[in-house]
Write a structure and sequence with these properties.
heterodimer; A: about 550 residues; alpha/beta; 8-stranded antiparallel sheet; B: about 180 residues; mainly alpha; 7 helices; globular
């Protein structure tokens, strides 16, 4: 194999999602010459995304084939952990009692991600949450999880900066969040779906509040404001959604110091004699390249980052790079999720507006009282569960002929989905390891073992109970579908496989994202998260941490400590 | 009761399928102009099947929306689907004969629906050719019809070509927009 040597850079960032894109931008803006490697391609909203066509439901999603475990060959899907029969009521079902998973074990691990410039922010729904203060101290406050090696105050100014880059829309009057000033753009009006559920929440004494979203309500940085098309997951045709390719990476490219290289997959890291990463080896269509840099930043997500670290083992690093603790791959957290698709007697047209524009944080403070657990958030989704346009409704309704057509006339637009998301208890036994089989590039597949603890099951149980209360109070007449991670794993908010901490024995990276073992290696993705923010979405925290890590790298470089 | 057929994964699968059958280079063309993989008799049966799945009633049906042409275009380039369709169309004609009719086309709407529905009955029907055909043709017809402007208009759906920025046309029971 011929390997072409590249000119060295000050920093190489591998992965262009929430963390990688922000780190690359911050390093370039600070004056460093940066190479950003992205495995997928660059997407152009006006050209690639389908929702400006009347028959958009028939058109391919631009990210097809890159989104899930079934769309790539990274994961070796394994038989799931046994189901706990005490919690059989948590089974995922369609009425009338049709089980999604009729077996005695959890279904295979499913990984939601996108290969493309911007990473998974290309198909995320724009949730931009600051984790609440208590989420950084879960062990001290409630005996759950582990305390972070930093607190909200350490991240506040980075949250500020990330929100301004994204043009986050929100309402600062949220009693469940730290006090703050105005958001960069005002909150969205509640969608019809959220307006309906707000009535139910009010009856229950819960506060349904506008979600904070990276969907600006005013033009930011020359981009369109959000047009509330509901098409965040398909890709925003207006370029309004603040995916990282259109925000941080675009800013970084403007400096002239950020070179973005798409269709470039990192294959391995080479260790130097000095205990530092000497080079990154990566593949393009026309060959294999080797590039050196003073700082290497990994940001491929909570599966690919530990996978590359473990796969880059050598005689001097037999357990993989940065794995002196033996914790690379451990403490994997999936997404504890409950979804209830519910039907109303009248039209809601939930497909209009941002897909997930409201949240209920009343139960976000983690606690366990007997068999009742809190530490989760609830929300409303207009399009989750595949209820979007007429085609998706029609394909999910049973039967055919006159009755089917009549049902479509009567029931189209009457469905919304209530969701609950909790933090999973981080446990060392939930982990990613390498399989013996390899992908076409010769990298071992990731093998994931993940099970639910009693605390996890209690969280699912509590969320299901609350969502049913909310559905009833809101006037829903029927639960069409119940999806839970009891038997159907989800991993949209996966994290924790290279956790941060102060001590090398119990963590992989420092609070600044720097490897304890390899001084020029940094990680800025969800793998560093010690927890999941009590159910909040992690992207903004990943971005804030990336800005903080980048600042640290610049400081080290200026002190000549890299 | 609105009973669901499949979960989210199945839905995503259906979207992937839909992307495969979309023929960007083939605009909906007149059925009379079709020269394709089915003989005239089978084409007639296909049109009857399509009409049974989304019949014309007070609103236009799948024939009015040009669905057979879309299916035909797809079958022209997908030999595996074509094989399944041929088997299925022969089967429904045979079942029509057994019911005393000269062909599936000769049946009235309710009888057509009954025969099609019978393909999905019985254990393991989904793996039988009849069950496979029904699942496929049902999916094809529903997708092409309800993704068309004809189908969208019937349920009052306005695609998000320019988004929904103004919150115009609030649905029944919606409150006034609030912050």
């Amino acid at each position: 194999m011929t390997v072409t040597k590249e000119e060295p850079f000050d920093a190489v960032v591998v992965g262009s999602g929430a963390g990688g894109g922000f780190a690359a931008m911050a390093l370039a803006e600070a004056g460093m010459r940066v190479l950003l490697l992205e495995r997928g391609r660059r997407f152009e909203p006006g050209r690639d995304f389908p929702m400006n066509h009347p028959d958009w439901e028939l058109r391919p999603r631009a990210f097809r084939g890159t989104e899930t475990a079934t769309g790539d060959v990274s994961l070796q899907l394994e038989e799931g952990a046994p189901l706990d029969p005490r919690y059989g009521h948590l089974r995922s079902t369609d009425l009338p009692g049709t089980a999604h998973n009729g077996g005695s074990r959890r279904g295979p691990f499913r990984y939601d991600r996108v290969f493309g410039l911007g990473g998974t922010t290309l198909h995320y729904q724009g949730e931009a949450h600051r984790f609440p203060e208590h989420a950084f101290r879960p062990a001290s406050r409630s005996g759950l999880g582990v305390d972070w090696p930093l607190g909200y105050a350490d991240l506040a100014r980075y949250y500020d900066r990330a929100e301004h880059i994204l043009g986050v829309a929100g309402d600062p009057a949220n009693p469940f969040k730290p006090a703050r000033g105005p958001f960069p753009t005002p909150a969205h009006r509640l969608s019809y779906a959220s307006q309906r559920v707000a009535r139910g929440a009010k009856k229950l004494g819960w506060a349904l509040l506008p979600n904070s979203l990276a969907l600006p309500t005013r033009s930011v940085d020359g981009r369109s404001s959000c047009q509330r098309s509901g098409g965040c997951v398909q890709g925003c045709i207006f370029g309004a959604k603040s995916s990282v390719d259109l925000t941080a990476i675009r800013r970084g490219e403007r400096t002239g110091r950020l070179r973005v290289q798409t269709d470039s997959r990192a294959l391995a890291m080479e260790m130097g004699q000095d205990g530092r990463v000497g080079a990154v080896i990566y593949r393009r269509a026309n060959g294999v390249y080797r590039v050196r840099a003073r700082a290497i930043v990994l940001a491929m997500g909570a599966v690919e980052t530990p996978r590359l670290l473990l796969a880059s083992r050598s005689a001097s690093q037999p357990n993989g790079i940065a794995n002196g603790s033996g914790l690379v791959g451990r403490y994997l957290m999936e997404t504890l999720l409950v979804e209830l698709a519910v039907r109303f007697d009248d039209r809601i047209d939930a497909y209009r507006g941002p897909p997930i524009d409201s949240r209920i944080w009343d139960f976000s403070l983690p606690s366990v009282n007997g068999s009742v657990r809190s530490g989760y958030v609830l929300g409303v989704s207009g399009t989750a569960g595949g209820f979007h346009g007429p085609m998706s409704y029609a394909l999910q309704m049973p039967g055919l002929g006159r009755a089917h057509k009549e049902a479509m006339r009567a029931q189209f637009g009457t469905v919304l989905t209530l969701i609950g998301i909790a933090e999973q208890e981080p446990r060392a036994g939930n982990r990613l390891t390498l399989a013996e089989s390899m992908d076409p590039d010769g990298i071992p597949l990731a093998r994931i073992a993940s099970s639910l603890s009693e605390l996890d099951l209690l969280a699912l149980d509590a969320m299901l109970m609350r969502l049913k209360e909310l559905a009833t109070a809101s006037g829903a007449v029927e639960v069409l579908r119940q999806i839970t991670t009891y038997d159907t794993p989800a991993a949209s908010h996966i994290g924790g496989t290279c956790r941060m901490g102060r001590q090398p024995r119990d963590s992989v990276v420092t609070p600044f994202g720097r490897s304890h073992d390899v001084p020029n290696l940094f990680i800025t993705d969800a793998s560093v998260l010690p927890g999941q923010g009590a159910g909040d979405s992690p992207s903004l925290t990943i971005q804030a941490l990336a800005l903080r890590t980048a600042e640290h790298i610049v400081t080290l470089a200026r002190r000549r400590e890299l | 009761m609105f009973t669901l057929r499949a979960g989210r994964r199945a839905f995503l699968g259906s979207v992937l399928w839909a992307s495969l059958v979309l023929r960007r280079s083939n605009p909906v063309f007149a059925q009379s102009a079709i020269v394709g993989p089915l003989d005239p008799s089978s084409l007639g049966t296909l049109e009857a099947v399509v009409d049974a799945i989304v019949p014309r009633d007070r609103d236009p049906g799948a024939l009015d929306a040009g669905v057979p042409a879309r299916i035909f275009a797809h079958l022209s380039t997908h030999p595996e689907a074509l094989r399944l369709y041929r088997v299925g169309l022969e089967l429904v004609d045979r079942l029509a004969h057994q019911a005393g009719a000269s062909s599936f086309r000769a049946l009235d709407g309710p009888e057509r629906e009954r025969i099609l529905s019978s393909l999905a009955s019985g254990p393991d029907s989904a793996r039988q050719p009849g069950g496979e055909f029904l699942a496929r043709v049902r999916r094809d017809v529903l997708a092409f019809y309800w993704a068309s402007e004809v189908g969208q208009r019937i349920v009052g759906y306005r695609p998000p070509l320019s988004g929904y920025p103004d919150y115009a046309d609030p649905p029944s029971g919606a409150g006034s927009p609030q912050r």
